[in-house]
Amino acid sequence: MIRAFSLVWDPAPVWERIAQERKSLGLVFTAYFFPMMLLAALGEGFTLEHWRTWMAGTHGVMRFNFAQLVVFETIRSALTCVIVGVSAHVTWLLREPFYARYNYAEALMLVMYSASPMFLCQVLTGIPQISLWLSWGVGLYFSLKIFYHGVRSLARTDPGSATGLYLLSSMVIIALTGAERFMLIQCLSSRGSSINNFIYDFAVKLTS
User: CA 62, 65, 68, 74 torsion: positive or negative?
Assistant: First the structure.
């Protein structure tokens, strides 16, 4: 958590330390990414349960119960992992055209660390007074800021190539997280969607 806030406010020196530490991918996942994802799910679940209503498919407007939150946050976390994996894979594929010198594990860690602000802003999802697009925009801004300094630190290439790599990779991150945000808004506000019915029905099975 401390590193997440450090990356938000002063990313350049933190990335220098990360590059020097050369931690393994498994350690970054278990000691940083997974705990951040879990804390984000717990924080978001708390605000959703207390302040946000949702369209539970054909069952109408209701507040989240515990089982529904478990299903909802599991889907959210799985989708987050997919977004991180795809973004890292694209970033890794772009290394050769821009003469970057990082491996796949480093590309994955780059995206994992950069996702910190998105996780922190997840807590705002359950507050109706805050636009879901606004919380996405704030998280995305700081994530791309961290990502920029991470690319410059890990790519070990000339500034022009690093900038090009950053811009193309950022477009992928914006597209994927934007699509995820659109689906989230549909889940919380649209009537009779299939995903809402799935959440409701699966939650009923969990408690039956």
Answer: positive
Q: Considering the domain boundaries, does residue 18 fall inside one?
A: no
For 150, the token pair is 């991470």
State how far the Cα of 111 lies from the Cα of 83, in Å rounded to an integer.
9
Domain that holds residue 104: 2-8+24-51+60-207
- Phi, psi angles (nearest 5°) of residue 97: -60, -25
Query: Model confidence over 160-198: pLDDT tens digits?
Result: 888 999 999 999 999 999 999 998 888 887 665 778 888
Range list of H helices, the chain: 2-9, 11-21, 25-28, 34-51, 66-93, 104-114, 116-122, 132-155, 159-189, 194-207
For residue 128, give both structure tokens.
């109706």
Report the predicted TM-score, pTM, of the whole model to 2 decimal places: 0.90
Question: How far is residue 173's CA from residue 86's CA, in Å, rounded to a whole number?
Answer: 9
| Tokens encoding 166 | 């950053």
17 assigned to some structural domain: no
